[in-house]
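Figure 2 data, in text form.
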Amino acid sequence: MSAVIDDATRSGEAFIDAVERVADHSVHIVQDELTLARIEMVEKLPILAGGLTKAIIGLAATLTGLLLGSFALAFLLADYVFGDHLWPGFALLAVALLGAAFLLTRRAWSESKEALPPVPTEAIDQARKLRDDVRR
């Protein structure tokens, strides 16, 4: 009877040791995944900052283009009244600035779309692989 109790005690201790090792390994895996997620976020933030900068420049060019377009319209109307020919210059500059604003905004959107929302995709993929391996 004593041998049976000793075997049960040893197998219980072995089970507890195995559970402790699994818990330790799980903690290390989670810490590694969090580190990977943090690294991915740090890599994606400059992309977002660059896109935001381009969007701000595009917005400034858009507002300037709209302002100059308003001046061009004003000079066009003045041309019919006073006979001056200043408006084509303003109109040409407005079109150029609006074109630049469109291109900058489009580029900023396409670059920002890659990073938005800033999701740690590699960490998520690794976690899914780990989950699938554990289920097997």
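Caption note: The radius of gyration is 32 Å.
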